[in-house]
């Protein structure tokens, strides 16, 4: 186990499928992704927050796989949307992506003024932890 989800009974439950915090065990390696935008390899960009978030999560999985990690190793998600109306689509995609993950990551969602290109409405960073590669 690389980390534990922290869900204190003394707090209201999280809004969705994430933990209030995580505890990372000593001696773990960490992988942090850059902020990922919803661009496919062919340069196409899907429309809508949910479709963009689904593609971003696929891109995050590819980055993590490059170092032998996966979505089960994600201990924190940091997401940005460009307007309040994009929150629901992002959250739906995030909860679907985490549906079969046994240990929930912490999650932060912030509304921002925009990204490098107007068509982008979601950007996500991930932090994952796993055993030190031997």
Question: How big is the Rg?
Answer: 15 Å
CATH homolog superfamily: RutC-like
Oligomer: single chain
The third-level CATH topology is 60s Ribosomal Protein L30, Chain: A
Q: Main beta sheet, described? A: 5 strands, mixed
Mean pLDDT: 94
> Percent of residues in helical segments?
10-25%
Q: What is the strand content?
A: 25-35%
What topology does this entry show?
Blueprint: E1 3-6, E2 21-24, E3 28-32, E4 36-37, H1 49-65, E5 74-81, H2 87-97, E6 106-111, E7 122-131
Parallel strand pairs: 5-6
Antiparallel strand pairs: 1-2, 3-7, 4-7, 5-7
Explain this structure.
- It is a single chain.
- This protein has 134 residues and is an alpha+beta fold.
- The protein has a single domain (29-131), classed as 60s Ribosomal Protein L30, Chain: A (2-Layer Sandwich), CATH 3.30.1330.
- Helices cover 21% and strands 29% of the residues.
- The chain contains two helices and seven strands.
- It has helices at residues 49-65, 87-97; strands at residues 3-6, 21-24, 28-32, 36-37, 74-81, 106-111, 122-131.
- The strands form two sheets. Strands 3, 4, 5, 6 and 7 form a five-stranded mixed β-sheet that branches. Strands 1-2 form a two-stranded antiparallel ribbon.
- Strand 5, helix 2 (87-97) and strand 6 (106-111) form a beta-alpha-beta unit.
- Helix 1 packs parallel to helix 2.
- It is globular, with a radius of gyration of 15 Å.
- The two termini are 16 Å apart.
- The mean pLDDT is 94.
